[in-house]
Amino acid sequence: MQRQLIPKRLNSDRSYISPIVLPGRGISRKIRCPIIQSPLAGVTDQIFRQLVRKWAPEALLFTEMVNATSLELGFGSNKMKEIEEEKGPIGVQIFDHRPDAMIKAAQKAEASGAFLIDINMGCPVKKIAKKGGGSGLIREPKLAEKIVKNVCDAVKIPVTVKTRLGWCEETADPIAFARRMQDAGAQMITMHGRTRKQGFSGNANWEAIAQIKSHLDIPIIANGDITNVEEAIKCFEITNADGLMVGRGSLGSPWLVGQIYSELRGQNIIKTPTAKMKIKLSLEHLEKLLSKKGDHGLLIARKHLSWTCKGFAGSAELRKNLLRAQTPQEAIRILEKELIKN
Ligand SMILES: Cc1cc2nc3c(=O)[nH]c(=O)nc-3n(C[C@H](O)[C@H](O)[C@H](O)COP(=O)(O)O)c2cc1C
């Protein structure tokens, strides 16, 4: 289904890019760039964030979601530790159904230098939602409220919530849910314009996000289907949101957040990388992963390389060859050879 509303190009009187200030409880934060990189499990690790930063130095980025119970058991703390070394604002996203574990996770994240704590109330994965974590919290508003309250009381930095329109269309009441999270202390809500039942399919419902925005006092970030500046402008126009979060559009395209932000500012327009730049970027991504993870880096790199090496002559063949590469050296050779051709 095509969206009907086609707003005019950016009108310089209308600023879509005002900073967002979150008061925190002792430590306030200013989000200077309201185009935000979403947390993406298996994608937004430290190396991906470094790449996003090249184009979007000021943008708010996120860790992949951190399981608070695993953290208590001693796993996954590297996802937080890593941010100590990084420049620029990084939010730590935590998930669980246990308030005590969430408190401890939030405190650890704050101690590691998190810019803010985001509570995941949108993850559709069955084994997480079944226990009441991620999107499961939408069906347990009392527990969701308790988690937000407890986490807010435990840290000084702002606490935010990322959620969906509801569990399914039949039971969805996103305005009531968002207001409850606001009243519990959440200082910003990111709304993915789909229900849990929809998963990632169909169009995100930006009109529903507009409705929620009009009932909230705290800033709202619209999420879902932002893949270029035109969609970003449409989404701002429809939702009146305070900011936008870019998700799958950035898979293989770590420049996207910076590109949208720069185009909204009407300056330093970042062009979509050429074939040569994409191949160079792939080499850089692969080499960074190899130097951090050893040969295992190749396995992690494969999906990124196939996402990035797209949309240019010979890219299908290149992807096939990269997938077949048995060793990191072979993958590097393939990319270097392709670079000479371009
Ligand atoms: C591979 C993948 C991993 C994701 N991981 C997370 C995550 O860790 N935390 C989260 O809140 N959302 C996660 N999401 C959801 C996205 O952040 C985003 O809300 C969703 O993809 C909708 O935005 P989009 O239509 O721009 O992709 C993930 C989505 C994908 C496709």
Characterize the structure shown.
This protein is of the alpha/beta class. It folds into two domains: 245 residues, Aldolase class I (TIM Barrel), CATH 3.20.20.70; 67 residues. The protein contains 14 helices and eleven strands. The strands form two sheets. Strands 3, 4, 5, 6, 7, 8, 9, 10 and 11 form a nine-stranded parallel beta sheet that branches. Strand 10, helix 9 and strand 11 form a beta-alpha-beta unit. Helix 4 packs parallel to helix 6 and helix 6 runs parallel beside helix 7. It is globular and about 60 Å long. It binds flavin mononucleotide (FMN). The site of flavin mononucleotide has 24 residues, from loops.
Q: What key phrases describe this protein's structure?
A:
alpha/beta, TIM Barrel, 14 helices, two-stranded antiparallel sheet, binds flavin mononucleotide, 342 residues, nine-stranded parallel beta sheet
